[in-house]
Amino acid sequence: MSPLLDQITAPLSDSALFAALRSIKDALPAWTTHPVALVAWWILGSVATIAFFLYPFQYLRCTFKTLPGPPRRSAFMGHALESSVGVPGVKHGQWIDKYGKVVRLSGLGGRPALLTADVTTIGYILQHGYDFAKPSFASNLLGPLLGWGLLIAEGADHRRQRRVVQPVFSPAHVKLMMPVFLNKSYVLAKMWNDLIDSKGDPVKAGLEATDFAAPNPGTAADLQAAGEDGLKIDTLRFFNRLALDILGVAGMNNDFDSLRKSNNRLSNSYNDIIAAVHSMTPLLMMETFFPILRTLIPTKRGKLVVENVKITTEESNKLVQEKKKRIANEKSGVLAPAEMDKDILSLLIRSNTSAEVRDDQRLNDEEVLAQVTTLLFAGHETTSTGLGFLVERLANHPEVQQKLYEEVSQFPEEMPDFDQLNSLPYLDKVVHEVLRVDSPVMATIRVPEKDCVLPISKPIMGTDGKLIESIHVKKGTSIYIEIGYVNNSPEVWGPDAHEFNPDRHDRPPLEKVPGVYGNLLSFLGGARNCIGYRFAVTEMKAATFVLARQFKFEPLPSKPPIKREWMVVQRPTVETESKYGPQMPLIVRKRHVDEL
Ligand code: HEM
């Protein structure tokens, strides 16, 4: 026991109550009764008590009490627990089906919250992007890891950063990145070929990184089905590294080569930071609401994150300084235009120093650094998960896979340019359809900066029998935007909206969706849409082009139960193998030349 606790409790030490408390305490880990932890518990307890007593007040101040919504189960947690448990978006979808496109909820401490899949309401929020901020817990979680880059900057700061970063993702610049997307995809294809030839033995396949074999090689039925020219492969593991390597080269002209090697200092640190964001623990959850806990309760995980952030900051800072020197040389004519770097970081520094940007609008070094980490974070897991869902859909829809194979295998070039890649209509429809049905980001949250009135597409019957024509919302109310629900809505895509059918994109949708890409909300819309959406779509198309020409994807006969978990991005895991983290295991089979 801590000496402080001993002194406080000494006078009580004979009582039965104290004996009972002592036995409970002895069963707890030592750190939980450390004086610092006691202070933290006291703060948490006080906050919980205040929130509990404020609950009736919170409810009374709600300006949309008559809006239908599910009954409140917990005074303190509101609907927060129910919302986050289970398959991403399912609970919210059920509530929308039952109560309508805009639903009344309550958040932590009973604070009123809204859930919406109404395209009029969402359109309004996205069009007035700067009147609706991201919730503070998002910046509490991501700020210390990524720096204050585009993903979490707000208001004037965001507008200024966006103005500098936007030109970097123009179609002309994404075109320049095509060779990177294709070359890295060919590296992956070679690895799969070598692994299949060596029956899954990474050493025999000549791979330096040995953690590539699927965590479990598969059942007897899987092995038999794989045969001589196939192998059970956890495709997601490869897509994660593919996306990271692409971002390394396209992002900063730095080849992490994490596909082939496992000892790159910078890529390992980025990976650990990303893993830290994705492995949400109860303490981490509390830290996002009460950042002070990070200092009060030091953890091993926290220490590791601090070390990794130090490494990424140091390494990225070196890169930024090198790039700045090179760009100064370009401007002074020492470097010829052909020698100019075309990676995102160089483009960003050029954009930041261009005469078109006013001095007071330029990003400082810290902000430039924050963009680099932000782009790696925002562009990594999202795209790799999208590719994981894509091969899963191909495996389960052989007719789609065959049609795609016919298109990509008949293309005469191995290295199509940007325009050629975009001229393949079926590839376009497949990628579009995967991003619709399996949107990697299923929902987001916005919080109005001032009281506002939200429009709705049609009046809603209130619980008091009166029609609601619009919704008055107080500053600070959390509004959940249901990206996945809107993407799969029969009102937008017809009665078969939940089915995977690339050909649906031959006909116009029934309703307009306020998204930046393809009548979908997958990349959101408005001032804070996904700045990397062209990059992501082109990368997914390039990887699919390369892989679908050389391999066939098949489901495993053992049918491992794949479930989706929600941690910023929805990620597939095998239910019975959750200890291995996200996976998308499939049989990957080599295509034969005469297969058409
Ligand atoms: C399939 C892949 C991707 C999906 C589904 C996706 C989706 C999204 C979504 C939904 C948002 C809005 C989040 C919010 O405001 O709550 C977003 C923002 C963002 N994305 Fe992506 N993204 C993808 C790939 C990328 C890539 C490849 C990059 C960069 C290389 C990127 C960079 C960003 C950045 C910087 C933001 C913040 C933009 C801002 O607030 O101004 N994303 N993304």
Tell me what the structure shows.
The mean pLDDT is 87. The longest helix has 32 residues. This protein folds into 2 domains: 111 residues, no CATH class; 375 residues, Cytochrome P450 (Cytochrome p450, Orthogonal Bundle). A hairpin with a 5-residue loop joins strand 6 and strand 7. It is globular, with a radius of gyration of 26 Å. The relative contact order is 0.15. With 596 residues, the protein is an alpha+beta fold. Bound molecules: protoporphyrin IX containing FE. Protoporphyrin IX containing FE binds next to helix 18 and helix 24. Its cofactor is heme.
- What's the main sheet like? 5 strands, mixed
Computed CA radius of gyration, to the nearest angstrom: 26 Å
- CATH architectural designation of the largest domain: Orthogonal Bundle
Shape: globular
Tell me how many strands there are: 12
Q: Please indicate the count of domains.
A: 2
| Backbone structural class | alpha+beta
Contiguous uncertain segments of 5+ residues? none
Question: Which CATH class of the largest domain is shown?
Answer: Mainly Alpha
Write the CATH fold name of the largest domain. Answer: Cytochrome p450
Task: Let me know the average pLDDT.
Answer: 87
The CATH homologous superfamily name of the largest domain equals Cytochrome P450
What compounds are bound to the protein?
protoporphyrin IX containing FE
Order of neighbouring strands in the sheet with most strands: 1-2-8-5-3
Give helix % range. Answer: 40-55%
Contiguous helical run count: 24
Q: How big a fraction of the residues is strand?
A: 5-15%
Distance between the termini: 73 Å
Pathway: Secondary metabolite biosynthesis
Cofactor: heme
InterPro entries: Cyt_P450, Cyt_P450_E_grp-IV, Cyt_P450_sf, Cytochrome_P450_monoxygenase
Transmembrane segments: 39-57
